Amino acid sequence: MRIFSQRVVTPDACGPAEVVVEQGRIVDVEARLSASTGAQDWGKDLLIPGLIDIHTDNLEKHYQPRPGAGWDDVGAVMAHDGQCAAAGITTVFDSLALHGVRNELNRREAFPAMVAAIEQADALGLLRADHLLHLRCEVTYAELLDGIGPQQDSPRLRLLSLMDHRPGQRQMANKKPWADERSAAPEFDEGMCLRHRVAVAELAKRRAVALAAHDDATVEHVAEAKAIGCGMAEFPVTHEAAAAARATGMSIAMGAPNFVRGGSHSGNLSARAAAQAGLLDILASDYIPLSMLRSAFMLAEAPSGWALPRAIATVTANPARATGLADRGAIVQGLRADMLRVVWQEGTWPRPLETYVQGRRVA
């Protein structure tokens, strides 16, 4: 298969080229001014790498679309997967929490069911995107290590993140203390939290998977994360924490909905402000798959004014690099032919037309 576009986005440029695909891989990127005989001609539609989403809880919304209304497990995965593929996401890290309740969904009960449904949908050939696992590790959860256990050797496991969602901490800094909300404040064992951090970090090292710190708010949080082996600062909640992460060499991931909206819905660091300060490497969909494409192209517009390859890298090459996915994320010879056809003019919503995973059109 050969595809020509006047606007092929490679790591360093955006210009006319023809991409040659064989057996799911890019075998050549030929600079040329027009399509060769027999090639698909995409004209001015952009050809960019498939998007890589390192953090999304979108599956939960399909697993339980309304409070108390569960849905068919495999059907939920299919709906989530289809939405991702239609948004140009070719690699999705299903970011699953191991415990807690959200919108009346018991995450501890849902977690193994959702993982099993992903496996079943894949075995039945129902998935369009490549689904990997991002386990959200709440260090205050007493049964955390037992919850991780069944998935610790899964080939899908590619990202672990350390979280602390206690009221008064990090993202929850403006929440009331537990004692104000409940009749009795639960006791948090700081020693247990530390043991959990160490155990998760050791697992990440043993499995050679990425380790992220989540919702860091202070220089001290970042230093603690770096010391334990975190290579990514995921959704830092203050400029101070993001700047400290940059100084330590950690990659910085922010939510694409935050960027599109113009600010955090919870009053934390604005993704746009982070970008303007040079403190942004990765954009993740968080809870809206289509936000990734929109935010990346917004970066290429004023006032951000990033070069298009740099902007597109926030949703392709950078998340691939941060999670050790060396086989995808760019329109480069030898990599997977995960590609996206996009219609875009500055100032408008980009429109994904065709999505390819390993050279096969999936949306």
Which class in CATH terms? Alpha Beta
Task: Calculate the terminal CA-CA distance, rounded to whole Å.
Answer: 17 Å
CATH superfamily: Metal-dependent hydrolases
CATH topology: TIM Barrel
How would you classify the helix and strand content by structural class? alpha/beta
CATH architecture call: Alpha-Beta Barrel
- Structure summary, number of beta strands: 18
Radius of gyration: 21 Å
> Unreliable stretches, pLDDT < 50, 5 or more residues?
174-185
What is the molecular shape?
globular
In round numbers, the mean pLDDT is 93
State the helicity in percent bands.
25-40%
Amount of beta strand: 25-35%
Number of helices: 13
The domain count comes to 1
Oligomeric state, counting identical vs distinct chains:
single chain
Question: What is the makeup of the main sheet?
Answer: 8 strands, mixed
What's the short version?
With 363 residues, the chain is α/β, with parallel strands linked by helices. It is built from 13 helices and 18 strands.
Outline the structure in words.
There is one protein chain. The chain is globular. The longest helix has 18 residues, at 190-207. It has a single domain (51-326), classed as Alpha-Beta Barrel (TIM Barrel), CATH 3.20.20.140. The protein has 13 helices and 18 strands. Helix content is 32%, strand content 26%.
